Structure formats: structure tokens, C-alpha cells
């Protein structure tokens, strides 16, 4: 019983240490550089926020969050006023009227982006590029909508910078099928960023790839080679396994493909299956997960326990079996 109590106390201590580290220890290192690289023997497994209004962050601490908050921009299109505008634009056949509607969509998206940057999530966000399924058969209109979104996002960032306020915005290209498709989207994002923010601020924007677990390994490897980071999405519709074990296996295949060509690649997982499969994702070397507020506490504790167990195993091995 005493041994079990000691172990419980050690796990609780590790959990407290992990939670503190998540908020403070890696803030400056991650913000000034890039996403977490597993250079240390026991790198922190990131448990990051997903969704608007989820992060509780005290701005008076003077610290940056330990990683980005994942924002799925489709949520903005579901807001009543923007949804109405968007649906009218989809059905509009008059070009002049369509342009006016696009301008109104731009201002709505810019207001949403400004609200995001003013919120706790805006300290560091990774926002997905819009890719509504109803525009899949219309590449031109898809590009027009994405251009409006990017201009709105970067204009909001530029305004914040003009007022001397910090904030980091990264972009995710959703579900590219090939490296050439991702490269095209990356170039598109970089062009809009440079035109809106200028070269220095545009260079600070990291551009990642949001991949479905069913992405072909060859394609995943080539995309991972040129992406700043990769997120394997457990919410990728029919392309994502619903059960945690299936998701972990599929995510492991993508992770292995990316790490073969880029050993230091930052690869995270998102969606409900990611939190459920946390233990498996930790063991295969995933950099971390995005999860909702409802899943975060349990995920933090599970990650802390796994980190503590790994440390103890290493101590035992280093001691030659004497401990």
C-alpha cells in the first residue's frame, strides 16, 4: 500500500509538473522558434486546444501559450449572418452583385478574425483555409473565397501589429492530395501574406498541412517534406476511422512516412479520436494532440503519467537495473 501511495504521489507530482510546463516552461522557446521538436530525451507531449472559446489564458501573465489553438474556419461560415451572405453569394449569377456580396463576406470574416486575435485563442492560432465541399466542383470560386479569407485574416493581423500588440497566426492547408497541390496552396498563402503584411511579418507565418488519416504514405512523405508542420485530422469525415485504435494505426502510418524524410518533423493529431488514442500516439512519437476543453484535463493527466513512466524506465535502465 505504501508503494502504491508513493507511486500515486509521484504521478500527481508529474501531472502538476506537466501542467505547469504546458503553460510556462516552453512558452518562450516555442514562440520565438518553431513548433516543438523532440530534441530532448523527454520532450513534452503537447496537449493543445481545439475550437473557439476553449482556452483559458490570463493575458496579465506576460507569457505565451505553449502551442497554437486549432481553429476550423468553417465554424465562421456557420454563423447566422455570414451563413446567409455566403449562401446568397453561392446562388448569385450577377457578377456585380456577387462582387458586392464578396466584399461584405470579407468584412464579416475580418471581424471574426479580429475577434479571434483579441481573444485568448488569438495569442497563437493555427487556422484552417476554407474549403467548403459545395465548392469542390468550382475551383475558381473556391480560390476567390480563400483569397477573401486570407486577406481578412492578414489585414486583422496587420492592424493588431500597427497597434503594437502581439499575436501569432499560422495557416493549415486542408487535405492536399499531393505535394504539388500543397505547394500550390502554400505559394498562394505566402503571396497574400506578403502583399498584406510585408515580407518580415509574412515570413513569421508557419504553413502546415491538415491531412486525412487515409492519406497515401508516399503523398504524406512529400507533403511533410515541405510543410512547416503536419496535423493528422481525426475529424476528416469518411476518411477518418471512428475508433481510437483504427485512428492510431492510420496516424502511425502517416507519421512514419513523414518522419522517414524529415526526422524532426512536427506531427500532431486532432479530432475526438486523437484524445481517445493519446497513449498510442504518445508511444509512437507524435508531437502532441489538439483536443476540446472537455477532453483536456483527462488528456493532460494521461500524458503526464506516460511522461513519468518513461522517465522512470530511463532511470532504471541508466542505473543498470539497480533501481
Summarize the structure.
With 323 residues, this protein is α/β, with parallel strands linked by helices. It has helices at 2-25, 27-32, 74-77, 80-91, 95-118, 139-162, 179-197, 199-203, 217-226, 244-261, 272-276, 278-283, 293-318; strands spanning 46-49, 69-71, 124-128, 168-174, 207-211, 230-233, 267-270, 288-291. 57% of the residues lie in helices and 11% in strands.
Rg over CA atoms, rounded to whole Å, is 21 Å
Instruction: Report the structural category.
Output: alpha/beta
Spatial strand order of the main sheet: 1-8-7-6-5-4-3-2
Q: Approximately how much helix is present in the residues?
A: 55-70%
Profile the largest sheet. Answer: 8 strands, parallel
From the N-terminal CA to the C-terminal CA, the straight-line distance is: 19 Å
Q: What's the SSE pattern? A: HHEEHHHEHEHHEHEHEHHEH
Total of DSSP H or I helical runs spanning 4+ residues: 13
Q: Count of DSSP E strands?
A: 8
Low-confidence stretches: 1-12, 14-19, 22-42, 55-62, 317-323
Strand content: 5-15%
Look at the structure and give the mean pLDDT. Answer: 81
Shape: globular
What does this protein structure show overall?
With 323 residues, the chain is an alpha/beta fold. Helix content is 57%, strand content 11%. The chain is built from 13 helices and eight strands. Strands 1-8-7-6-5-4-3-2 form an eight-stranded parallel β-sheet. Strand 3, helix 6 and strand 4 form a beta-alpha-beta unit. The radius of gyration is 21 Å and the shape is globular. The N terminus and C terminus are likely disordered.
